[in-house]
Write a structure and sequence with these properties.
Length: about 100
């Protein structure tokens, strides 16, 4: 589930558990939901999420982003990841056809 509010840094994340802030606690605590209790999403083999993952893997392996807005002026893959860090979390919400 995408994060709908800022992450807290007061409580360190616990491996295997949701690190998003809890909506019900004040001061904010981490959600803590065990990942093994959450059903996995089924992704389409030729869907947009897998296509995006392949582009990211290519940028990592080549060290360069040369697609989309970077097509005419390829940039180091670190520039791509810096740009991704500035996108709102809602841009990454999984679609049902993923």
């Amino acid at each position: 589930m995408p994060r709908h509010f800022p992450a807290t840094t007061r409580h360190p994340p616990v491996p295997g558990r949701c690190r998003s802030p809890s909506e019900n606690d004040s001061p904010p605590a981490r959600c803590g939901q065990p990942f093994e209790e959450v059903p996995a999403l089924t992704l389409a083999a030729q869907g947009t999420i897998i296509a995006a993952q392949k582009l990211i893997e290519k940028a990592i392996s080549s060290g360069q982003a040369c697609f989309g807005v970077y097509q005419d002026n390829p940039q180091p893959s670190l520039a791509l990841f810096g740009d991704l860090g500035h996108w709102p979390a809602s841009s990454f919400a999984a679609s049902p056809t993923g």
